[in-house]
Amino acid sequence: MKMWSRSFSKVYSGIKREDIWQLWTDINNWPKWHTDLESCKMEGGFTVGNHFLLKPKGTRAVKIVLTEIEEGKKFTDCTAFFGARMYDTHALEETSEGLRLTNTLVVTGPLKGLWIRLVAQNVANTVPNEMEALVNLARDKHA
């Protein structure tokens, strides 16, 4: 069974890896740059196995589990749907042109087609705008 994957990557100059990482790991404040979110709530630390509740505007909250963390470099979270799982990897990479941010979504499972149509494609479509908002927030910290 083939998985579905969408990735978006862009290089930004004039931002620090630490600033992006701090905004990413401050999950309770994601609605500041994630304009389609009503709320995000995580208790405890940003550690593998911990989870948070993400509530998009106009729908119910979903539980998302942190499945992989490489401190200061990348993390992956997983949303479990009936018959499918959606993994979202956020990565940082220093390049000679600046800091490359990459967001990769992967959906697996027998009902992946349903969840791609209901959720994943919309999430993928919002990534470029959210990435810009995240970078602008990081730049504002040093303006």
Q: Your description of this structure?
A:
The protein has 143 residues and is an alpha+beta fold. The chain has one domain: START domain (Alpha-D-Glucose-1,6-Bisphosphate, Chain A, domain 4, 2-Layer Sandwich), CATH 3.30.530.20. 27% of the residues lie in helices and 43% in strands. The protein is built from two helices and seven strands, in the order βαββββββα. The protein has a seven-stranded antiparallel sheet, covered by helices on one side. A hairpin with a 2-residue loop joins strand 6 and strand 7. The longest helix is centred in the last third of the chain and has 29 residues.
Please provide a brief summary of the model:
The protein is α+β, with helices and mostly antiparallel strands. Helices cover 27% and strands 43% of the residues.
Q: In angstroms, what separates the terminal alpha carbons?
A: 48 Å
What structural category characterises the helix and strand content? alpha+beta
What's the SSE pattern?
A: EHEEEEEEH
Q: Write the CATH homologous superfamily.
A: START domain
Rounded mean pLDDT is 95
- How much of the sequence lies in strands comes to 35-45%
Supply the number of structural domains. Answer: 1
Low-confidence stretches: none
Name the CATH architecture. 2-Layer Sandwich
Instruction: Please state the oligomeric state of the protein chains shown.
Output: single chain
Individual helix count = 2
Strand order of the largest sheet: 1-7-6-5-4-3-2
Q: What is the fold named in CATH at topology level?
A: Alpha-D-Glucose-1,6-Bisphosphate, Chain A, domain 4
> What is Rg?
15 Å
Percent of residues in helical segments?
25-40%
Assign an overall shape: globular
The CATH class = Alpha Beta
